[in-house]
Amino acid sequence: MICLGLVALQHRGQESAGIVTSLGKSSKNFSVHKGMGMINNLFNDEAIRKLKGNLGIGHTRYSTAAASEVVNCQPFVVHTAHGALAIAHNGELVNCESLRREVLERGVGLSTHSDSELIAQSLCCAPEDVSEHDGPNWPARIRHFMTLAPLSYSLVVMHKDKIYAVRDSYGNRPLCLGKIVPVDAGHANINDQLAEGWVVSSESCGFLSIGARYVREVEPGEIIELSRNGYRTVDIVERPDYKRMAFCIFEYVYFARSDSMFEGQMVYSARLQCGRQLARESPLDADLVSSVPESGTAAAHGYARESGLPFGEVLCKNRYVGRTFIQPSTRLRQLGVAKKFGALAQNVEGKRIVLVDDSIVRGNTIGPIIKLLRDAGATEVHIRIASPPLQYPCYMGINIPTREELIANKLNADQLADHVGADSLAYLSVEGLVKAVQMNKAHVNPLKAGYCTACLTGEYPGGLPEELSW
Amino acid sequence: MICLGLVALQHRGQESAGIVTSLGKSSKNFSVHKGMGMINNLFNDEAIRKLKGNLGIGHTRYSTAAASEVVNCQPFVVHTAHGALAIAHNGELVNCESLRREVLERGVGLSTHSDSELIAQSLCCAPEDVSEHDGPNWPARIRHFMTLAPLSYSLVVMHKDKIYAVRDSYGNRPLCLGKIVPVDAGHANINDQLAEGWVVSSESCGFLSIGARYVREVEPGEIIELSRNGYRTVDIVERPDYKRMAFCIFEYVYFARSDSMFEGQMVYSARLQCGRQLARESPLDADLVSSVPESGTAAAHGYARESGLPFGEVLCKNRYVGRTFIQPSTRLRQLGVAKKFGALAQNVEGKRIVLVDDSIVRGNTIGPIIKLLRDAGATEVHIRIASPPLQYPCYMGINIPTREELIANKLNADQLADHVGADSLAYLSVEGLVKAVQMNKAHVNPLKAGYCTACLTGEYPGGLPEELSW
Amino acid sequence: MICLGLVALQHRGQESAGIVTSLGKSSKNFSVHKGMGMINNLFNDEAIRKLKGNLGIGHTRYSTAAASEVVNCQPFVVHTAHGALAIAHNGELVNCESLRREVLERGVGLSTHSDSELIAQSLCCAPEDVSEHDGPNWPARIRHFMTLAPLSYSLVVMHKDKIYAVRDSYGNRPLCLGKIVPVDAGHANINDQLAEGWVVSSESCGFLSIGARYVREVEPGEIIELSRNGYRTVDIVERPDYKRMAFCIFEYVYFARSDSMFEGQMVYSARLQCGRQLARESPLDADLVSSVPESGTAAAHGYARESGLPFGEVLCKNRYVGRTFIQPSTRLRQLGVAKKFGALAQNVEGKRIVLVDDSIVRGNTIGPIIKLLRDAGATEVHIRIASPPLQYPCYMGINIPTREELIANKLNADQLADHVGADSLAYLSVEGLVKAVQMNKAHVNPLKAGYCTACLTGEYPGGLPEELSW
Amino acid sequence: MICLGLVALQHRGQESAGIVTSLGKSSKNFSVHKGMGMINNLFNDEAIRKLKGNLGIGHTRYSTAAASEVVNCQPFVVHTAHGALAIAHNGELVNCESLRREVLERGVGLSTHSDSELIAQSLCCAPEDVSEHDGPNWPARIRHFMTLAPLSYSLVVMHKDKIYAVRDSYGNRPLCLGKIVPVDAGHANINDQLAEGWVVSSESCGFLSIGARYVREVEPGEIIELSRNGYRTVDIVERPDYKRMAFCIFEYVYFARSDSMFEGQMVYSARLQCGRQLARESPLDADLVSSVPESGTAAAHGYARESGLPFGEVLCKNRYVGRTFIQPSTRLRQLGVAKKFGALAQNVEGKRIVLVDDSIVRGNTIGPIIKLLRDAGATEVHIRIASPPLQYPCYMGINIPTREELIANKLNADQLADHVGADSLAYLSVEGLVKAVQMNKAHVNPLKAGYCTACLTGEYPGGLPEELSW
Fold first, then answer.
1. Rounded Cα–Cα distance for residues B297 and B307 (Å)
2. How confident is the model over A300-310, as pLDDT tens digits?
3. Which of A142, C363, D9, D160 could form a disulfide with C407, with the two C-beta atoms 3.0–4.6 Å apart?
4. Sheet holding B212-217, edge to edge
5. CB contact under 8 A, B109 and D78
6. Quick one: closest CA in C to D339, which residue?
7. List of chain C residues whose C-beta atoms are within 8 Å of the C-beta of residue A117
8. Which residue of D has its CA nearest to B98?
9. Which pLDDT tens digit goes with each residue over A69-83?
10. What is the ipTM metric for this complex?
11. Chains A and D touch (3+ CB pairs under 8 A)
């Protein structure tokens, strides 16, 4: 079940993955399987059979150049004086350097540069003001860590027969709670029956595939304990009064899977709203609205509905083109080679096309696509991007290229249109984006809008720690 | 360029691939690179650099259980008394057993069971009635082979500085001709410049990516010679008078890439017409037309347009689910697990849905999808299949499961609806399909309709050779 | 140079290996390359080029079932408050469980079960009685660790521009010091010139291959500091008064390479002496003395010289038989299959043979060899083993099978002769072995004999810690 | 059993291997397993289980740069008009080019450049003068091939339930016959019992390991048929009257395993005789005779016995050094690095050493070994080579480097001694070699000496075909 859940989260990280399960009572009874690569390859029947127990945690990890090593695979398991602890972490500690210094000065050696080891070593030692005559007080240790580390993290921490689910007080990274619903015993094989259960996950998109239903999000600062007795909130750590919630808006724009739910709404719906808002902000007279499959489809449908223009497909994707690929010679590149896509020529010929995409990062792919459509006979190609220009790095868990690589730091919209050969190019505004993701939430006070838009505006929640100033 | 072309043909075969190039004059100057796997992996920079010459042929091969061996990779290179010959073959020889017997009785050993070796050995020996005082007469040898082997094949045969492109007299397998257009020398790197050139391919979808334009199809029975002097028809081998052309209709339905052109029309358009025809044949009162991404999308748009119902997305695809995968337990299967897809719940809730797909083969995947949509709140789910029931094996190059595995041989439409949990299920009729693929061709005389529909009707063009009777 | 040295130590461990080098001043300038497998495969040109600096440590690791994981590859690198520390360890901590408990109770998490991590975390924290106002006092920290951990270890610890070489106070595991001799500048390429340098190693056999000369052994309890200024003894930790030195005698018998020097004598010579002693203890009337190549050759030569019998080869080794191999059927096993060896039939026919080997562990291989010799015509085959019966486990770094697997715990010499089909079988006595390894050392007082013979006698130096009692 | 036999022949080729077995009656019932690599890796349990039948042939193939491809793995299987034929070939066809031309002009295509395919296609076609009204006459076809191809080959040809064993009329390549002896049924598992059987092999060294006994060699020109009824000579093809037998003398010198039997004598004995003869031809005053392990050991023992000097070991081999290895810098090479060997210093110090090796090819390894011995204290090092200088290429199956690479074509014995730093260096004479290999054969008329010494003398048996003249 954890494995199926991770398959649904594979888009959040393809570098490595792992699962740790627990037999409960004894602290020695962890089963661990971790490795480099995709879930499908890592978790064959044999690997799954070896994972014993009735609770567990899993993780899929991002591909970042710096630390693509086996030793950094999560969940991170550490042996403590009270038995083994397993930790999985979504996010990035903004003040990791100062946290690191503290741990090292305590006389603890660190064998990796990963945040997970840092969190683990932080939890291994009971703070002075935490009394533990009855055994380890994990919630108190977690609270202590949270007061030292403002963001960004969604965490699961497993010890014996309990899992703690933790979200930082800014709510920067997503984390939601689901309920596993028992199936009708009439049909089920007796061995397969499952009592009621609970699950937490960065995204809800895997819930249906494991027979679970979305219940609610874990609140910013909340520490939830999952055990045989269900779930209960054991603590809520507040953020500073003058600070607003800072949920990563990039999850809506790009990162999350479109069937996930955040704040009670489907990501697909938010993207469709972005397309509608974009049509309002940058309308056009054209024959056809289309998208770069599959990233821009939701927004393109939104644009089409709002504008009243027909939606139609203009590109066909080559399913078999991987990431690493032969470099065509200059001559072939010049031909506007778009080996990833083919043009549906008879749909395009003589048409004025609005092509919608979700975002522009380095700006490398859109030029060849426009060339391809013109070669296939399009008379005009207008680009509409359903998010604002991406301009700033993220220190909270999203892997954004350097400022120099971000095309929006080099060219404005008109220059970019020119550069890629579009007849026009327009972005969604930051205000428009915030409005769009709140469109379906009547109850949200837009003045209190709680989103982290740092990659778009450079305004980091809680400010940037000194160690990160650039 | 050949490599990029093969990437665009990767959907036609993922088991193995190869390229042979020729330096022209000398018969010893073939460069060969072949192997198991996908183009991306086989053809790295080094492999490509080693392929020298200015003409060449390439091939991607199908995954069929029986002969997944390196020795069967194409193109097949054979050394003859007149130098090396390279052959690539799309199709399957229906009378291979009798051809084989003839070759063996001539005292020739065969080291594989592949059709390519058989074709090669047939061409190695000049037939008695072919006089060759001036050197080998390849067109005459090819004609001789064609008279012995009625179908099915599209062939390319390379010798020294010439390539022969051959299509069987029934036109069963596709083959088309394209022109490589020189680019503006002003911008091009001098090394990358390319004079005019010619290309033949099973599908036209790769043409744009290599700077070529679709010219026409190679005609049934035609032998085209490509050389430094351009192309010319050197012979046309007729089929028996009483026989009609028999172009594989399954190429339209399923096999070809949607941006390819056959008979002057785009495959996507033909599929959209199938959807329109389906709406006429099996209309419905519903809230939403959708498709199983991405196979049914063109037909779904056609259905929506014809029926006037709105089109909307209901499924989100997990890009990272490969073919080999963990087997969920019965319990999880029962939950209607569709790990490949997620439901866009807020689009589905309370809706009556028409779900369009291009074909049903074994019928394994549709059930879990329906279950997923119902779990997500759909009130009705109706299945519409944009092709007739698939019931018979193909002996002409398409890898269709055994009759026992084909669900249409076990259940009729109503039984199948029941079996997969649909509110209704309807197929397109054979007549409807033939009509749909001719819809855009005003010039085609429908009475002379020239399609092989053997997998749908059991009527094999030219009859079944004795050796294949079952 | 480190890499070549490790190649010469490959016999000490084939599971994994690693090298860490240091650029000296800055604590961040470690280069690390580790992995599973043999030196030849792990250290290609690229890997070696990346290892920068002018000091470094390396390790090859044993194949033990329990912990064959990448995470356990040595050297172990740990980040401390004073910069990175790299540690390589030969041996096994007999009281690791109590050391582990201490570290955990200090609030430190441990992520592996390896001794190396334990040693590293022990060194990370300055003990209370060590004052460090001028920076870390590594020798004092090492001494502190040594007082807690009696045996068994030879250690190298690298920090910035210094390496500490440490041998436990019992001298259980070997460690020796060598001097790198500058070569004649007249011939040397300028880039290749090397000033004088120093090296420590578990065995001296690699010294010649890196241009070094054997100087002396590191003394039991000695802490040597290697730096730009040469080497100096910074401390000597004493063992309890009533305890004798306990150098592993199994190094002489089996483990070390025959060209290594221990205690001023060549291992080959010690083995030859064992053969001589064996001839005295168990003489025979025979035609030929031979050995199982190549393990018993030195002892066989000794036996031949002492007995006056001729030495001759009787077996030919198949160089290409690896470890994992096809299991012959019972029938073939019965035939006395010895696929690893062939018999030199014409040397064997009609002869009475004394076959000498260095040791018997499980007793599986000798039977088929005897059968092979008899099939080839030998009239008598007598087995002489140049070491006493192996009966007890080792907790100090040698990977000996379980007591149940050791044939000497199941059969005495006569029973074993019967079991393997020998005409007679005799072991060397423990006294004889100790005498033989001291034969060349006039200066050694045999009454103070300082060897660990635990695997032969069950007498563990320092007694067995409670946690290991069985 | 075939697999075990191939393991014993692994030294004859490590590039690829294969086994084909036959179920007998039906020509379709061949099981084939072939691939690149060593027997141990290719033939796991599963592979062996799939090989069905009670007769079969196997092959291990040489690593030659030109043709290291899967397609060249042997045995070669070809389908003929009379069913499948499997062929394995030891040797090289000296007139392959003219044979090739004949086959091609018959209208047969060849897909490889291997001799095996050529032989196969030759056998596929019945020659005009062979009448086959009762089915294929394989012996006649084989005889026909043998009259066209003088040498060099030992062949096994399998068809249905028969195997033909063939040796060329010069007896150039070895081939011998063995009898599989039934074992005592009292002990054998019923399934493992084996009736009497027959085996042919290039060398006899594998016979003991499969329960077989050496019977005799296949005679030059002999065609033996093996079947359910045992073996029988079906034909003997004579060589030209004026030609002598030409058995490859290099098999004795270097290639064969020392426990194999040729012409009634053990290869080890022949090598020992070479050492004796060498001592007679090039005697010395020295302290110790030793060898480069393990290639020169037999000859060194011979030299020691003849000269009366003591034999002793001076080098210790590193078992773990593979072929591909890190390139030491010039500095390290200069140090006389011999990473493959260590010096047994205490055996060498102050000694005058005769170092015997079997042959010198490129002369790269002996220099560093001499340097190593001098570094270890040897006062003199004299090299004695138990074969004549290797100067000419072989076109009959032995992979000898080019003339330019052979050190004997650049330096004479004295120059070479100088070059490698030896005090003296001497080869065995050609006459001495021929005498030595006949020493034990009282019955052989030395005037009729039947050896191919082409690589030593440039005199090719039967002369060189024009196509090979250089």
1. 15
2. 999 999 999 99
3. C363
4. B197-201, B176-180, B212-217
5. yes
6. C209
7. 111
8. D81
9. 667 789 999 999 999
10. 0.89
11. no
